[in-house]
Design a protein that fits this description.
Order of helices and strands: HEEE
Strand content: 15-25%
Structural class: alpha+beta
Strand order of the largest sheet: 1-2-3
Helix content: 25-40%
Shape: globular
Number of helices: 1
Length: 67
């Protein structure tokens, strides 16, 4: 099996999410690809060591593990 396409897709997705986190961390406004609502970065969640990037409608919901 050739995993090169899967590896590239995974790598591209990781890079896209990393860049999104950098921009949100700098205070830039980014929008959900589905509903076009503003994305928010919440680092003060109920779970210690966890953060969330989400839109108001819940289309985008990324759980972050903070280390």
């Amino acid at each position: 099996m050739d995993f090169s396409a899967l590896n590239k897709k995974t790598s591209d997705s990781f890079a896209k999410q990393r860049n999104m986190l950098k921009k949100l961390g700098k205070g830039q406004t980014l929008y959900c690809e589905v509903c076009k609502g503003a994305l928010t970065l919440n680092l003060k969640t109920d779970q210690p060591g966890k953060g969330v990037v989400s839109c108001a409608k819940g289309c985008t919901d990324i759980l972050l593990e903070l280390g």
